[in-house]
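Reopening this ticket.

The earlier resolution said the output was attached, but the attachment link was broken on my side. Pasting everything inline this time so it's all in one place.
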Amino acid sequence: MDIITIIKYVFLGLLQGITEPIPVSSSGHLVIARELFGIEASGLSFEIFLNTASLLAILTVYRKDIISIIKNLWRFVFNGARDNDAVTDFKYIICLIIATIPVGVAGLLLKDVIGDNISVGFVGLMLLVTGVALLFIKNKRGVKQDGDLTVKDSIIVGIAQCMALTPGISRSGASIVGAIAVGLSQKNALRFAFLLYIPVSLGTAMLSVGDIVNDPNMNTLWLAYLLAFIVSVIATYFAVKWLQNVMERGNLIIFVYYCFALGTFSILYQFIWA
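Inline output:
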């Protein structure tokens, strides 16, 4: 394991950390970067490893919300509390669970066919799709609050998130688009999207422990993996904070431009330069 290899993997960790929270597809970026750097793909273990790093960062950012929701859920279930906070957070948890089901089922069914042999050109096409979806909701200002979410809303957001199983379709972007489409404000849509990310990512990590442990590259590239993991945690944390600021200012258009630019480059690379 030479220093160049370590730098490549650390860069992939940085790329994952920056692109996981923002609506530009981290999986698509990893496909493109590995093609440009000539790093051989070996299943999804490295991506899931980095995805777990992003999960830790998002848990840190939203720790106060998570603790508050858990406390209110406990009060509702075990203490019989029926005040507004307890009822709202109980319904919110139910909505998160419902929204998790579609992607959980789809992920299990498609686990063996997603990830390998995805071309840069295909990723580029999906980035264009992400850009178009963001374009349609960039100026939409919903008014629904957490307590206004319905079962129907949750199913729609969950189905939207299923689209992100395809590299190039942003998970956060799909969830945000779905949440804004059903009427949530941009701030609440972002919060729902990231809290929805937690059970999905945690479930994926738990189901993939064996794949990560048995990764043939782990023994020789453990230092590169570790450094990539640490960098990904830090980068994700600051990327989430930045996205929160972008959403508050209503500047989603910058991600539309970015997806169109990178998508076009990826398609040209596939058919002209590759």
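Reporter confirms the inline version is readable. The two ends are 27 Å apart (CA to CA). The chain has one domain: 3-273.
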